[in-house]
Write a structure and sequence with these properties.
alpha+beta; Jelly Rolls; Phage tail protein beta-alpha-beta fold; nine-stranded mixed beta sheet; 9 helices
Amino acid sequence: MDRQRLIYLIKKRQQGKCSAAENAELHELMQNPRIEKEILLLWDQLHEEKTLKVSADDSKKLYDRIRSNPEVAAVIRNRSVGKAKKQRQWRYQNIVAAAAVLAIFLGIYFILFQSNFELEERSLKTADTYPTVHPGSNKAKIVFGDGTYQELGSNPETASINKDNFFTVNDKNGGVSYLESSTINYEVAEMHTLITPRGGEYAIQLADGTKIWLNANSSLKYPVSFKGASVREVELEGEAYFDVAKSTVGNKPIPFLVKSEGQVLEVLGTEFNINTFRNKVTTTLIEGSVKVAFEGKSTDQFYILQPNDQSVYDKKLEKINVAQIDPYYVKAWKSGDFAFDNAPLANVMDDIARWYDVDVEYKTEVNDVRFSGKVSKFENIETLLQTIEWTGSVKLKLNGRRITVMK
């Protein structure tokens, strides 16, 4: 075993700077049955650098556990007797404690609870037992009017889909485009539904030229043609960013309607984001102007949003609040980032869960915990969770496809 390499990896791991390959290498080294003996030989250098610390109480507990290792026991028996022996055994207690502390970071032997220094023995599965958690990617499916469907995103090359005299193009940039048909009128146009799973997103261009980016775990229902339409209407569940194309008949503009969880949004040509997660409909206007109204309400009950306005409609209370915000944090997901400005931690974890397709378990209340920051959506999930931990408010543990939130 290359001791200098082991020291190097230990230092990087404790600093949180190990790459995935280095983590795997260190993990493999820690499985070596002779690791305790190597830690003994490395102890002087590590101890002088003060990189390993453990309480005296935990030192004894860990010593009693690891001392049963035949090799370690044999080395201890061969040491000199008397005072020198006692000093050496005390040293061994710290050595084996240090080995266990290293093991904490790799999830091999023990979990040491820092709050009360209580050592709890657990049988842990190795990292290879669990599936690797990857960021989301461009994937979706189109459900056609007859119930059949087409998977999208699996073929990196451009592929054309011919369906009932219109065309959709699954391009290698992760989008699908509809071409206006000369033979289909809006009144009889088939309805399609674009669905993204957890861990997926996709872009679509409708037949009128409107571009829509659909976030993870969302769906968009739309007609395949707008020819002859007096109104353009789509239905959204989840989250999407819209860049609506202007469309006219003669000199008369054709309204574009987005129905989402009881809200009806009307636009003529603009950019905006709609999010229907968490039992609210949140509409953020980027450019242009939109009118927000509600199904079942009087026609004179509506709100006109201006750029940077955000309306939040509480479906349960049937109330709406409008405020000016910085739209950067709303549209960052479309550009490949997570960006939060004093956001509730529960909302942050909700977004992460949808994108990485993981579950979140709370072992503590987080109502008062908020997070601000920006990180790439394609970051390694462990690095992402570490970034959130730097706030000092919570600890996050990834186990398989489950994230546990603790104080």
